[in-house]
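ok trying this again, last paste got cut off
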Amino acid sequence: MLGVHGEAAFEMLSRANALEQQGRSIIHLEIGEPDFDTPGPILNAGIDWLKRGATHYSPTPGIPQLREAVARHLSSCHPVEINPKNVIISPGAKMAIFAAIHSVIDPGDEVIFGDPGYPAYEAAVRMAGGTPVSVKLEEDHQFRFSPEQVARCITPRTKMIVINSPQNPTGGVQTLKDLQGLADLACRHDLLILSDEIYSEIYYGDPPASMLDIPGILDHLFLVNGFSKTFAMTGWRLGYVVVPADLFATVDLFINSSISSTATFTQLAALEAFTPGARKAVETTVREFARRRDVFVDGLNRIAGIRCSKPLGAFYLFPNISALGLLSKDIAGRLLDEAGVAALPGTAFGRYGEGYLRFSFANSLANIQAAIERIDKFVTNLS
C-alpha cells in the first residue's frame, strides 16, 4: 500500500460534515454524486426483488439477463456487436477498474494515464505492483489525452493505457480522432486499453465518442461503465466491464477470488435502466445539469482571479485559480473553513492539478448560486 492515497473527496466530505455538526452552513460541491433520486422504475423494481427474495448469490460474472441487456444496449449505441459472454457485472465501476488492472498488470508493468485524473487508476496500478506513468492533460488542449504525448511515454514495459472520457475531474471529452490515435498505438505496440466511460451519458452537445466506435479494438479493450452516475445509483454499487474474450477467465477469476459476485437484487433492478421511463429521467437530469453548469461557469468567470471553461461532459468544473497566488490545497482548505464551500484541490487528482479546484455541480441551482456569492466574497477578502 506504499504510495497509495485514498480519494480526497471522501476526506473533504468528512471534514465538511464535521463542520456541519458544529452548526456551520456548508455547501457541498466536493463529492461526485448526483443529487437526484434513483429513477422510480429502478427503485420500485429493487424493492420488489428484495421482497421476492433476490438476496442470494448471483453467478460470478453477473446474472445473464443484465449481461445481455448491457451487451444489447452497447451494440445499439455503437457500430460493434458486444457478446454478452464478455460482459462482467461488478459492485461499482471502481471494482471493474481494479479487476481489469489486477488481472493483467504484473510487478514492473507500466500503465499510462492522464493527470489530472481519477485517483483510483494510480491506486489500482500501485496495488498491483505496477508503475504508474502520468501524462499531463493541458487546459489549452481542453484537457484531452494526446496520442502524441502517450507515444512518447511508451517503453518496452508499457502494458496498458487508461482513458477516461468524459473525464473526471475536468469534464474533458476525447474526440474520435483522439481515440483512433490511441487505438493505433495500442495495436502497434500490443497494449491494452482501459476506457472508463462512466460519464458517457452525461454530456452537453454531441454524444461523446467511445472506444467502441473504433473498428477492431475489442481484443485490446476493457470498456468500463456503470449505473452510478447516469441513474443516481452510487449507493447501489453496480458497474460492468466488457473484457477481451481471451482475458474473460482471468478477470472472472479475480472477481470470484475477491468479492464472489454482485448483489442479485441490484442487478435485477438495473434491468429497468434500459426502459423508456428510466431513460426519460436521465434526459431530465442532464438538462438540469446543463443549466447548473452554465450558471456556475458564468458566475466563476465574473470573479477576478478565476478562469473556468465549460466542460463538455460529466458534472464537474475545473477552474484555474493560479492567479490567486496560493496553492490549490490551501485555497480548498480555506474555502471550506472561511466560506463554508466544500471543494477539492486540483492536486487531489495528480500533481498537474496544481492551480485548479474541482467543483461538482451535482447540487441545487440555489446552492450553486449561494456558493458563487461565498466564493466571490472569499476571493475579495484574499486581496
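PB: full thing came through this time. The first helix runs from residue 8 to 21.
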